[in-house]
Amino acid sequence: MTARPMPPNRVGWGTWLTFIIAALFIASLIAIEFTPARMLQLPAQLARVLGFFYPADMAYGWNMVLPAIVESIQIAWVGTIVAAILSLPLALLGARNLYPRISRIAHLISATARAFPEILLAIYFVPIVGLGPFAGAMAIGISSIGMLTKLGAEVVESIDLGPVEAVQASGGSRLLALRYAVVPQVLPEIVAHWLFRFELNIRASAVLGVVGAGGVGGVLLNTLRYRHFEKAAAVLLLTILIVLIIDMISGEIRRRIIRS
Amino acid sequence: MAEAAVSVRPEKPPRNWWLWGTALAFLVLMTWWSARGIGFSINELVCNIGGGRRLLQESWPPDFSFLPRLFAPFLETVQIAIIGTVVGAILAIPISVLAARNLTLGMFVWFVDRNFMNILRTLPDLFWAMLFATAVGFGPIAGALALTVFTIAVVSKLYSESLEAIDMGLTEAIRAAGGSWWQMVQYGALPQSLSQYVSYVLYGFELNIRASMILGLVGAGGIGMILETQRSNFEYERVTMIILVVLVAVLVIEQVSAVIRRRLT
User: Fold this and answer.
1) What residue ranges define each of the domains in chain B, with the CATH number in brackets?
2) What is the pLDDT of residues A192-213, one digit of tens each?
3) Rounded distance, CA B36 to CA B29, Å?
């Protein structure tokens, strides 16, 4: 008899799953011709190209890249505002505890909007409103509605229904109950979600330039396409710097909003 | 009695008008400035609705005869996502452990790793794809590398937070019994957060499937490359077909992964 507890039997579904994933992984490597020889070549190749990125052409950065980043921020902001305005009513309607029946429709709208990547929407908006940032803002706005509605509805579902009953018991209409009992409870958290989405949208709008919808993505694509690596380095440096700063500010505001 | 009747009503809490005013002013100004900057106009939108209708007519019905030619690129897309997720998920483990305040090997390592993670997260997936496509050439390998970095960024951020919330009793017990740092992480920290880890990896896989569909726009392999050529040729019926395939794939993966994640927790 040993005092030591027996280890549990480990050959379960976890082991099988690992094998299946490993097999799929290796099959994929073979399919895209990522051979061991290619892998060994890779570090040297990456190091060589990275060498071209130094030094960054900061004159180009301040003159050409900065305006493009500003445009990306503007696209993200307008997109977030559009999505915030459209998603607030949808979030209220999507709450199961307030509107058990209508909420299904709101959930359907939100799921559809979430399924579209921004960039595919931009592909359709570019021919409609023309090349440029406006198309990007519309694409960002429409595709943000999905997530904001979903998160907003979850916030509304978690509220205390006491105030709603209190308003209705003292003769208030449904609309008044929404205004005085629901919105004050949910607004801080919903605003925090808006800010979070704004942070995500900056990254999304940075990419949209690839399909001609304005912003810094198009600049990066062009500099890389024509092999101006020093200019591309300026794009990357400035993007990282500005996104970090905005993330920090927005994260701090979100924390304050949630705490108060 | 008379005094009580005066203020039955509870007093309103005081408002911080200064804060509210500044916030509102900032909101309005920022919106006005941005809307002007990007040339936002409802007018333009309404005027161009006609163009939108023509576009929709051109892109409907989807060109189903194009479907067989999508099979190979679609498969490539899934392969890119699998490779990116597997490699990224493995590399994310050490990065998350070192970025967790309670497990890391010292403040310096923690600081460097945390900032490394933050920088990885600032660049969007397509930027990585563009970079790798220039570095290693157009094709699926660039896409797989881009998604690897993207997966590390997503998973390590979430997982390091779960690691910070683990029960430290177990890890302390291993340390007290003479276990090394390595053994503490291996037997104390990782097993208790395994289910969260798996669910984050699944989430990363979802994002990767979604991203791998569009990586081809910048030449990083997969179904997006066909999308880009058809889009440049204004073959909108085919574009719609491709987008339908993407949407179906994304929805299916999301449902499957949601079911698995619900089982896990």
Assistant:
1) 11-58 (no CATH), 66-264 (1.10.3720.10)
2) 999 999 999 998 888 888 888 8
3) 11
How far is it, in rounded angstroms, from Cα A105 to Cα A116? 18
Average model confidence (pLDDT) for chain A?
86
Rounded to whole angstroms, how far apart are CA atoms A132 and B86?
37
The CATH code for residues A52-259 is: 1.10.3720.10
Dihedral of CA atoms A44, A48, A54, A59 in degrees, nearest 10, equals -130
Distances (CA, A) of B62 to A47, B68, B245: 44, 13, 11
| Chain B residues inside the 8 Å CB shell of A124 | 55, 59
Q: How many CB contacts within 8 angstroms connect chain A with chain B?
A: 151
CA dihedral sign, ordered B228, B229, B235, B241: negative
Place of tokens 């050409």: A64
Given CB atoms, is B187 within the 8 Å cutoff of chain A?
no
Complex confidence, ipTM: 0.82
- Separation of alpha carbons B105 and A179, rounded Å: 51
Measured CA distances, A62 to A58, A234, B48, B122 (Å): 6, 9, 35, 19
Divide the 265 residues of chain B into consecutive groups of 10 and give the mean pLDDT of each group.
Answer: 61 79 90 86 72 75 81 90 94 94 89 92 89 87 93 93 89 90 90 89 88 85 85 84 85 84 76
pLDDT of amino acid B265? 67
Q: Which residues of B touch A136 (CB under 8 A)?
A: 38
